[in-house]
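Question (not urgent): is this output format expected?
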Amino acid sequence: MKKIFALSAVFICLTSCQTPKENIDLLVVNADIYTVDSTFSKSEALAVHQGKIVGIGKKVDLLEKYNAKKTIDAEGRVLLPGLIDAHAHFYGLGVDQQQADLVGTKNLEEVLARLVAFHKEKKPSFLLGRGWDQNDWDVKEFPTKESLDKFFPDTPVAITRIDGHAILANSTALKLAGITGKTKISGGEVILKNGEPTGILVDAPMRLIQKIIPVFSRKQQIQALLDAQEICFRNGLTTISDAGLDRNVIELIDSLQQTGDLKIKIYAMVSNNPENLDYYLNKGIVKTDRLNVRSIKVYADGALGSRGACLHEAYSDQAGHFGAMITTKAELTALAKRIAASNYQMNTHAIGDSANTTVLKAYAEALQDKPDRRWRVEHAQVVRIQDFDYFSGNIIPSIQPTHATSDMYWAEDRLGADRIKGAYAFKTLLQKSGIVALGTDFPVEQVNPMLTFYAAVSRQDTRNFPENGFQPAQKLSREETLKGMTIWAAYANFEEKEKGSLEVGKSADFVILNQNIMTIDVHEIPNTNVDITIVSGEIVKK
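Got this back:
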């Protein structure tokens, strides 16, 4: 009898002394998890509570420890940290949904057909479109205003090139903007023929057209942001570094995030203009759980595709043409010193080798004795061999892999055989800086981050061209590419302690894919789909 009582006492003690399970919001099991932590470790289960990761490890251990309101069985699928697009135009993507889509047009006739159809359906007072690229056409020349005038003699029309660095305007729009053959604006070009505007405006003169375009209402702005969010979540993007926003849009984003309508996280680069600079440099960093405002976006030059990129020597396919600086050397130097005196980051668009030289020298001078500022060169597309040494952990290349595979068909024509060696040099940039922040530059390129991943590791387009990849020595490994889209992108945003890897205490931002991009045949990567997107523990796409 005494033995029975003793055994009973032990049983009661064992059952009553067991640690009760912790209640949590979400448990993911049977996953192939790439944590992207410091050792690039893998795991199989993940626990989430109140938007944060509270546990990661073996399924049996987490099931024993936690009682979850919701459990997701990943059924062996790969789970990655939420994907970060280090350079894109989130609001611009939303705006594009409200105008004619000209992406993928194969000739001018197709552009005109889409404009006519859009105008017939929407009947806008000012017809806008974006996405044409003459480099994709059989006739690789800029179109002219006469083609638009034929179909739209009275309605003002302005259609933006795919890179955002050239506009084709019709005669009505040119007249409203006051643009004539005598219009001269530094930092760009009004292209003329027989002394008259052809309708093509490159870089700075585009502002004259942009000033006369009707301003979006608040309702239209909200719709644009919500449209962009839906597209990004569908593609597994949880944080977007928006490369150029004005104060009114930033504050609208903040208000929509506070109400819960906008759940995506935004790293906002403030557009470089006097009003924005005076406000934000005096105000200081603006930081919430979903919004981070601590950088200034500057344009050094234009784009290579529209020959606006500023080169040391003339374009190989246009004698005497060097491109142009949008922000002069003196202005860049002064601006760098002003930003360096604040706690803001400077992120400068630099495409041509001359623009990159100017930006890198201005950075180096301004950042003397200023460690951990993480200033970024956005694109760093064409760099002289001797200038690569400027890159470091304090001067970070922010690059877009699909630019290489989009531009490879004509880039050498622009640059020649020698300069192309320093173009789209992603591996070299990584070796010099220690990290690369990877993005898409959407809507210049497609939103899909699987195309970013594929272009980085294969240096091929989706037709698997060229056979061994464009400049194959510049390929990134899959591990490097995943880091560039997660933890390194977070680092470039000063957010590596809160996101970018799956570790206890970090935000529960992650994606589940239908196939493992780390192991599948490289040519299958573009066919990968996002099954589930989760932001701060909330399922936002399934």
